[in-house]
Amino acid sequence: xxxxIRMVALWLKENGMNLIKIVVAASCLWASAVLADPPxxxxxVGYDAGLAAARASGKxxxxxxxxxxxxxxxxxxxxxxxxxxxxxxxxxxxxxVYVDAESGKxxxxxxxERITEAELGTRLKAFATPLFxxxxxxxxxxxxxxxxxxxxxxxDYDRYVRGGHYKQKTLLEFLGxxx
Length: 179
Known about the structure:
Elements: H1 2-14, H2 19-33, H3 47-57, E1 61-66, H4 71-79, H5 84-93, E2 95-100, E3 106-108, E4 114-116, H6 117-123, E5 131-135, E6 141-146, H7 151-162, H8 171-177
Parallel strand pairs: 1-2
Antiparallel strand pairs: 1-5, 3-4, 5-6
Helix pairs in contact: 1-2, 5-7
């Protein structure tokens, strides 16, 4: 990233930009390159806050791994998470956690170990985004699902998780048996 900023600054300088403009432009590029956004209007929180809230509420955790520049994350946010009924369902029944799969932000695992959001992504094999992970209130993984999903997909996953079906069958078995 630093090399990229240096190259942009050099290009700007060669094209007549003064130092102040170079610094402002480089800062804007850097700031935009490290941000990733959860769906707008949802009460997503960071990993630590979400774990604490889940322990207190007893609700399962819906963990969304995204990253800056992820076209499928943006598509999912616009096409799926824009559904008002889905927003109401997930806001009422889950602790919503958003993690930037490339972030250096530190978090604490249930074991007490401190790692970065990117390291959590590596451990959960979030090599492509979006990735959705359902966790118990204690932070144990129930199921993880990669890629763009529809509103109906998320309704099915909700029934699987909150109905406790994951205790008896895999997600594929559950989805294959639904009417």
